[in-house]
Amino acid sequence: MRLVELRKQKGKSQAEVAKFINVSQVAYSKYETGKSEPSNDILTKLADYFDVSVDYLLGRNEATIPDDYKNLETAFSDLRELTQNQIDEVIKFSKFIKERDKKE
Amino acid sequence: MELNHLYKYAKDKNISVFVMNTEKSFAIKQNGYYVALSSRIIQTERKEKCTLAEEIAHCEYGVFYTLSDALNPLANANVRRIENIAQDKAAIMLVSVDDIKKATDIYELADDLMVETWVIERAINYYKRKGLL
What we know:
The complex is a heterodimer of chains A (104) and B (133).
Chain A: H1 3-10, H2 14-21, H3 25-33, H4 40-50, H5 54-57, E1 73-76, H6 84-103
Helix pairs in contact in A: 2-3
Chain B: H1 3-12, E1 15-20, E2 26-29, E3 33-38, H2 45-60, E4 65-66, H3 67-70, H4 77-94, H5 97-102, H6 106-113, H7 117-129
Parallel strand pairs in B: 1-3
Antiparallel strand pairs in B: 2-3
Helix pairs in contact in B: 1-2, 2-4, 4-7, 6-7
């Protein structure tokens, strides 16, 4: 689960997140270390708190990148939850630039 | 820097900017530097300015990550480092030390400069680290 990364990115302590989702810090700490699994209700609260989907929280990102484009140098203005469609848009743009450069 | 100056700045740095009907704004490095601004996102001048500045910063300082790394950014310290560099550089492109010194309130300053508040906060932190504030 991406809890540690999300919490640090938001600059919050375990106690702060625990308080928000109404669990003890000990309980929350176990979610982070994987010693305990949160209920669906808690997962939803955590996803809302960090403004991500439950899938993202659980580390699921099904997007794939063709081998030719894995090393394409990119930078997004918003890195949250890249979807397959967004990846495809970058690849399409890369192809558009290549075609444009060929014609010039 | 005003929005039209940002576009000119990009042009002067040989960074090609396109406004596209994409879900996100992004930049790529591919025999040159190319920025795609999402027309769906840059619906206010403020948003357009901040997004463009950030993408220009990625290009100007050559700080990119691979598309693979972008899929799991939070787990990648290099991606976080790159994002921090670009956001700092974008912030100081838009907000000067004098702007901050003359300001009484970050929200007012953000309104005056037509930027988002994260830009002001970033600029303040940057200038403080450099001992300029």
